[in-house]
TrEMBL record:
<dbReference type="InterPro" id="IPR002942">
    <property type="entry name" value="S4_RNA-bd"/>
</dbReference>
<feature type="domain" description="RNA-binding S4">
    <location>
        <begin position="19"/>
        <end position="78"/>
    </location>
</feature>
<dbReference type="GO" id="GO:0003723">
    <property type="term" value="F:RNA binding"/>
</dbReference>
<dbReference type="InterPro" id="IPR050343">
    <property type="entry name" value="RsuA_PseudoU_synthase"/>
</dbReference>
<keyword id="KW-0694">RNA-binding</keyword>
<dbReference type="InterPro" id="IPR018496">
    <property type="entry name" value="PsdUridine_synth_RsuA/RluB_CS"/>
</dbReference>
<keyword id="KW-0413">Isomerase</keyword>
<dbReference type="GO" id="GO:0000455">
    <property type="term" value="P:enzyme-directed rRNA pseudouridine synthesis"/>
</dbReference>
<dbReference type="InterPro" id="IPR042092">
    <property type="entry name" value="PsdUridine_s_RsuA/RluB/E/F_cat"/>
</dbReference>
<protein>
    <recommendedName>
        <fullName>Pseudouridine synthase</fullName>
        <ecNumber>5.4.99.-</ecNumber>
    </recommendedName>
</protein>
<dbReference type="InterPro" id="IPR006145">
    <property type="entry name" value="PsdUridine_synth_RsuA/RluA"/>
</dbReference>
<dbReference type="Pfam" id="PF00849">
    <property type="entry name" value="PseudoU_synth_2"/>
</dbReference>
<dbReference type="GO" id="GO:0120159">
    <property type="term" value="F:rRNA pseudouridine synthase activity"/>
</dbReference>
<dbReference type="InterPro" id="IPR036986">
    <property type="entry name" value="S4_RNA-bd_sf"/>
</dbReference>
<dbReference type="Pfam" id="PF01479">
    <property type="entry name" value="S4"/>
</dbReference>
<comment type="similarity">
    <text>Belongs to the pseudouridine synthase RsuA family.</text>
</comment>
<dbReference type="InterPro" id="IPR020103">
    <property type="entry name" value="PsdUridine_synth_cat_dom_sf"/>
</dbReference>
Length: 257
């Protein structure tokens, strides 16, 4: 009983008086409490725009803004961000009037007000990020930030390295203007198909399929493997995982939060 009372009292204190700053930083993935205390003493932490060096400082992550080395810490306990591996024939939506399989069928109703940040077309696979953090979602999807995305594309036909280099150097003209790849490399090839790894910032609809289709190499299979600093890794199709505080922090930094 004393332990239960102690825990209840601790939680009551944190609810009303906030959480110790060093504990908040540790929860956000900045290392041990001791390391976080050193960061505070070294003058690297701001709360609501004011430099804080007092170790006893308490903050409310729901209402106060904390920055380390100028970058904002995002740690609202109600917020969650997911990495999901979308299989083919799954709609990048939370519901579908036609009854097709959607992202909602994968994540269920466990997370309140969660939504996808960007899309993959119906026949494409791979990484989709989801969150119920509205501010993070707006920044990730805003054209101003155009987060870098990486894909593995299987193409019809044997494509030369020169074509890859040309797509990076000069790009290709589509109906809605010129587009260039940031990176393109051939990772495997046979007589009738080529597998390439491509990176680009554009979030336009079906952009990778349109680029290669325009130069005569239709995409047979397309898998998105990375969005900004977040990698698909060994996440199985049709499954998802919750991003760590460190991953959310790196994604937030990438989009100017």
């Amino acid at each position: 009983m004393p332990h239960a009372y102690s825990q209840a009292r601790k939680s009551h204190t944190e609810e009303h008086d906030g959480i110790r700053l060093q504990k908040l930083l540790a929860q956000a993935g900045f290392g041990s409490r001791r390391k976080c205390e050193e960061m505070i003493v070294d003058g690297r932490v701001e709360v609501d725009g004011e430099l804080v060096t007092e170790l006893g400082t308490r903050v409310d992550p729901k209402t106060q803004q904390v920055r380390v080395d100028g970058s904002r810490i995002r740690l609202n306990p109600r917020h969650v961000t997911l990495a999901l591996n979308k299989p083919k024939k799954v709609l990048s939506a939370m519901e579908d009037p036609k009854g097709r399989y959607t992202l909602r069928d994968i994540v269920g109703d466990k997370y309140e007000r969660i939504f996808h940040m960007g899309r993959l077309d119906y026949d494409s696979e791979g990484l989709i990020l989801m969150t119920n953090d509205g501010e993070l979602s707006q920044h990730v999807m805003h054209p101003k930030y155009e987060v870098e995305k990486t894909y593995i594309a299987t193409l019809e036909g044997r494509m030369s390295g020169n074509v890859c280099r040309r797509l990076v150097r000069t790009g290709v003209q589509l109906d809605d203007g010129w587009i260039k790849l940031d990176h393109c490399s051939i990772i495997d090839q046979s007589r009738d198909q080529t597998i390439v790894k491509v990176t680009l910032h554009s979030g336009k609809n079906r952009i990778v399929r349109r680029i290669f289709g325009a130069i005569g190499f239709p995409v047979k299979r397309l898998v998105r493997t990375q969005i900004g600093p977040i990698k698909l890794g060994d996440l199985k199709p049709g499954s998802y995982r919750v991003l760590s505080a460190t991953e959310v922090r790196s994604l937030s930094k990438e989009v100017g939060l």
